[in-house]
């Protein structure tokens, strides 16, 4: 039994390989990019606009509002990264209703890649907003002794991000696969709906946590200590 | 192995590409469209505000003009009312003046009529009195009225006394022309001689005389020199009678203006009986 779509390899040349994770990711990328392009090709700035444009406007303004609510002062600077994170994870979960589809987020490689992206973006944003000295100094607070713990905290939360998402998505897929072998009718549909809900929640949690980390990094230590709760799911 | 590091790298790259794609094809166009719409709505709202304020200004202007118009209308109306009042007052004054003039004219006419009537009555009375006196004197004394008048005049001259006599004497002495004796009738030579004699005796001087007939004296004789006059005339009696008649007329006018019935005055009850007089003109 496959635990990850990484194991479904279509083509391999030495270290380079083309597996299901990459294939489904490309599929999602294609749907997102082409769908956006098709809808935004004929945008209206007037009072009358298409339903698809309304949908996209709701999604984009909703994401922007969420980012602003978490505490980022300039949400438009981060909406590219954080919004894409959420849309990619949400669409990856949503497509689980399609038969034969395996979410790329069920692969630890994908979640690790996303977590690594967050790990890079957080200090990058902090340094850009506060300057390198001020940001790096925040690792020495409240005292210099806390430096290793701060670094461990940074790494562990990245690991937690990756593993949490992977565990939830993978478990959903696994439960569904096991249930299909036990009770092939009705019950897997319920579990699939539950998995869909779980996937949406995980997408929300992942992107919100990334937002919180970035907000904490850009607002200095005071805000950081107040607004960086570590969720337990 | 759960983590395939090539896949991790590929997925990270895929994710970054997706970020770029969505930035280009999703977020930017949508946010730009939202901004454009917001700008447009803001512009429309600003335009609406401007139009509203403009409308408010025009409304204020209209109200202001309306108030001014009302004030002007009220002022014009007041002015017109004042003019009408003044014109009315003027017309009333004119009418009153005209009425007064008419009334005065009418009173004048009435007075003239009364005067004419008085004059006629006086003349008639004089004539009647003259005729009655003449007849009476003739009947009683068989002496003509003219003779009696001459006697009366002569008697008056002879009975002159005191200051009057002296004054007249001085005047007669100073007279350069003959003294004028006027009578209502032509004096006979005897009568003229009697008068000359009386004057000569009275004033102890030879006084030249000039005789004239003046019917207006009615019945009488008068001597005139340098403003001094000696006269005896029925006209004096007639003047007294005229006063009585005039008073009768006045009483009658008063009775006419009142609503009560006319009263008959006591004619002649209070009439002064005139005396022959010597007067200064």
Overview of this structure, please?
The complex is a heterodimer of chains A (233) and B (281). Chain A has helices at residues 20-40, 51-70, 75-94, 108-130, 132-137, 147-182, 187-226; strands spanning 9-13, 16-19. With 233 residues, chain A is mainly alpha-helical. Chain A has one domain. In chain A, strands 1-2 form a two-stranded antiparallel sheet. In chain A, helix 2 packs across helix 3, helix 4 runs parallel beside helix 7 (187-226) and helix 6 (147-182) packs antiparallel against helix 7. The longest helix of chain A has 40 residues, at 187-226. Residues 221-228 of chain A have low confidence and may be disordered. With 281 residues, chain B is an alpha+beta fold. Chain B folds into two domains: 65-104; 119-280, no CATH class. Helices cover 72% and strands 9% of the residues of chain B. Chain B has five helices and five strands, in the order H-H-H-E-H-E-E-E-H-E. Chain B has helices spanning 5-141, 145-158, 162-174, 189-203, 234-257; strands spanning 179-183, 209-213, 220-225, 228-233, 278-280. Chain B has a five-stranded mixed β-sheet. In chain B, strand 3 (220-225) and strand 4 (228-233) form a beta hairpin. The model of chain B is unreliable at 259-281 (pLDDT under 50). Classes of the chains: A mainly alpha (233), B alpha+beta (281). Chain A binds chain B through residues 3-4, 6, 15-17, 19, 21-22, 25-26, 28-29, 32-33, 36-37, 40, 43-47, 53, 56-57, 60-61, 64, 76, 79-81, 83-85, 87-88, 104, 107-110, 112-114, 116-117, 166, and chain B through 2-12, 14-19, 21-23, 25-27, 29-34, 36-37, 40. Chain B: Residues 252-281 are annotated as: Disordered.
């Amino acid at each position: 039994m496959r635990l990850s779509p990484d194991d479904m390899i279509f083509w391999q040349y030495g270290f380079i390989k083309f597996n299901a994770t990459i294939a489904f990711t490309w599929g999602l990328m294609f749907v997102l990019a082409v769908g956006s392009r098709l809808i935004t090709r004929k945008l209206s700035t007037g009072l009358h606009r298409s339903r698809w444009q309304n949908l996209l406007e709701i999604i984009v303004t909703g994401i922007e509002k969420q980012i602003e609510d978490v505490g980022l002062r300039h949400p438009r600077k981060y909406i590219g990264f954080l919004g894409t994170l959420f849309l990619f994870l949400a669409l990856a979960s949503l497509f689980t209703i399609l038969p034969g589809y395996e979410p790329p987020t069920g692969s630890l490689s994908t979640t690790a890649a996303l977590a690594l992206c967050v790990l890079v973006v957080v200090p990058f944003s902090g340094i850009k907003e506060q300057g390198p000295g001020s940001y790096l100094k925040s690792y020495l607070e409240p005292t210099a002794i806390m430096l290793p713990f701060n670094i461990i905290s940074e790494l562990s939360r990245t690991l937690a991000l990756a593993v949490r998402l992977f565990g939830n998505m993978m478990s959903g897929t696994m439960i569904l696969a096991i249930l299909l072998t036990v009770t092939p009718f009705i019950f897997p549909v319920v579990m699939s709906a539950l998995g869909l809900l779980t996937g949406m929640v995980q997408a929300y949690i992942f992107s919100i946590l990334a937002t919180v980390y970035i907000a904490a990094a850009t607002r200095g230590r005071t805000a950081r200590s107040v607004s960086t709760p570590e969720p337990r799911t | 192995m759960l983590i395939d590091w090539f896949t991790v790298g590929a997925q990270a790259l895929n994710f970054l590409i997706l970020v770029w794609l969505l930035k280009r094809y999703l977020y930017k166009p949508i946010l730009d469209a939202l901004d454009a719409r917001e700008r447009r709505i803001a512009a429309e709202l600003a335009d609406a505000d401007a139009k509203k304020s403009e409308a408010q200004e025009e409304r204020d202007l209209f109200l202001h003009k309306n108030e001014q118009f009302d004030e002007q209308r009220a002022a014009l109306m007041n002015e017109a009312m004042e003019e009408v009042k003044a014109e009315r007052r003027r017309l009333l004054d004119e009418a009153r003046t005209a009425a007064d003039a008419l009334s005065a004219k009418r009173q004048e006419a009435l007075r003239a009529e009364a005067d004419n009537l008085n004059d006629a009555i006086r003349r008639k009375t004089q004539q009647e009195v003259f005729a009655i006196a003449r007849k009476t004197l003739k009947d009683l004394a068989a002496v003509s009225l003219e003779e009696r008048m001459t006697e009366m005049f002569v008697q008056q001259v002879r009975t002159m006394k005191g200051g009057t006599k002296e004054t007249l004497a001085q005047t007669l002495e100073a007279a350069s022309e003959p003294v004028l004796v006027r009578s209502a009738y032509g004096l006979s030579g005897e009568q003229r001689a009697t008068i000359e004699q009386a004057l000569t005796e009275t004033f102890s001087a030879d006084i030249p005389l000039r005789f004239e007939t003046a019917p207006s004296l009615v019945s009488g004789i008068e001597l005139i020199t340098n403003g001094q006059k000696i006269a005896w005339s029925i006209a004096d009696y007639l003047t007294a009678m005229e006063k009585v008649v005039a008073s009768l007329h006045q009483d009658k006018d008063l009775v006419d203006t009142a609503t009560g019935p006319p009263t008959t005055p006591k004619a002649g009850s209070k009439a002064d009986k005139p005396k022959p007089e010597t007067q200064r003109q």
